[in-house]
Amino acid sequence: MEHTSVVVIFAGHIHHCICNVHGTDTMQVFEWAFGKRMTPQERLRKNQRALDRTQRELERERKKLEAQEKKLIQDIKKSAKQGQMGACKIQAKDLVRTRRYIDKFNTMKTSLQAISLRIQAVRSSDQMAMSMRDATRLLGTMNRSMNLPQLQKIAMDFERENDIMDQRQEMMDDAIDDAIGDELEDDEEADEIVSKVLDEIGVDLNAQMQETPQGLVSQENKKERVAQAIGGGDEDDDLQARLNSLKRG
Q1: How far is 228 from 236, CA to CA, in rounded Å?
Q2: What's the Rg (C-alpha) of the chain?
Q3: What is the pLDDT of residues 67-120, one digit of tens each?
Q4: If I label 227, which of 24, 40, 111, 202 is the partner at 20 to 30 A Cα–Cα?
């Protein structure tokens, strides 16, 4: 009967709260009444904190038992020295029980550590799953937004324009090569013509210079310059005088 009254009072209190809340979502009211619904990650963190707290408490108790163990060992030695064998036996039994408790605490601590590691592994796996889910969602969004026909068209246009550019570059290279080749051929032909003309002119000039007095004078002048260069003497002076007389005649 008492439980029924409590339920009725509690239900009436909730109904009163719901009726008095304006513009508030019903879920918020239930969270206020029954507590916020925890996500799996929050539950894992809560359990992890509880395990850590329990391990710290076990560690404190284990240290107390170890201190008691040391004290019992000293008491046993003291009782044995004093010949109190009854007290020594009782203290020895307490020491055995204390050591058993220490072993149990160590076992419990090891078990809790294993559970804590499992929880950590679950949290890591859950975090990895969340990351993979987010990555999958992102990839799905990108795939849906990707227009494959448009990408294919862009790739084809790029390939076509690239081919056109290559063809134009080849045409320009061929034109440049042809121009340079023609120029080289023209230069070669011009050099041949000039060489022929110079050869012909050179032959005629030499012949004329040998036939005319002026040619003789020029040849003698050349000889004179050569003689002066090599240091000619009186014979060269006589030769120069005869050349001058021929020139006046």
Answers
A1: 8
A2: 60
A3: 998 998 888 888 888 888 888 888 888 889 988 998 988 888 888 888 888 888
A4: 202
Q: Counting every residue, how long is the chain?
A: 249
Tens digits of residue pLDDT in 201-211: 654 445 555 55
DSSP state of 23: S
Place of tokens 């239930």: 30
Strand, coil or helix: 158: helix
Q: Which helix (H) or strand (E) holds 122?
A: helix 85-145
Residue 39 DSSP label: P
Residues 6+ apart with CB under 8 A from 122: 44
3-state helix, strand, coil in the chain (%, to 5): 90, 0, 10
CA neighbor of 55 nearest in space, from 103, 117, 101, 109:
109
Residues 6+ apart with CB under 8 A from 244: none
How confident is the model over 219-241, as pLDDT tens digits?
555 555 544 544 545 555 666 66
pTM: 0.40
Place of tokens 């709260």: 17
Per-residue DSSP letters for 51-102? HHHHHHHHHHHHHHHHHHHHHHHHHHHHHHHHT-HHHHHHHHHHHHHHHHHH
What is the four-CA torsion angle of 177, 179, 184, 185, rounded to 10 degrees? 110
Q: Which of 123, 101, 131 is nearest to 51 (CA)?
A: 123
Please enumerate in sequence order all residues whose Cβ is within 8 A of that of 224, keeping only pairs 6 or more positions apart, or say none: 232, 236, 239, 240, 243
